[in-house]
Amino acid sequence: MLKNRKSMSKIVVVFCIVALTAFASIAQANDGGCGCEQGQRHRHHNFKRIAKKLSLTDAQKVQVKAIFQANKDVVKPIFTSLHTERKNLQTLLHADTIDEAAIRAETAKIAGIQADLNVNRAKVGAKFRAILTPDQLVVLKTMHNKRQHKGDSAEK
Hints:
Layout: H1 2-30, H2 37-54, H3 58-93, H4 100-130, H5 134-155
Helix pairs in contact: 3-4
């Protein structure tokens, strides 16, 4: 019975490692990667698309760009830290010996950094929504709901 328990523990650890690796890859893809040039082009394209759908005025576009530009300085060190910690986690996951405590600690660090990014994203979103008209807010909410439902159907 002890041997079965050890085997089961090893299977669980391997499964967790595979799952963490997959989640880290998905999270990195969702964050636009490391903030490289390709990610910047993608974000710029999204801004143009959203600005067009919301019919932003020139004044609103200037305000939005100022919000995003100011946020760059805030998130750059956070993304750098996230990238470093993900590298550290990958090193731990592929080490010759499994250090469960270190993996858990590194995963907790990444979760904390991700939480910081999410709080920042919420704050920037609030600033963005503050410059929109009520009609634009309705359009934005509709866009958000469509995107959520699209994600829901893709998961099924």
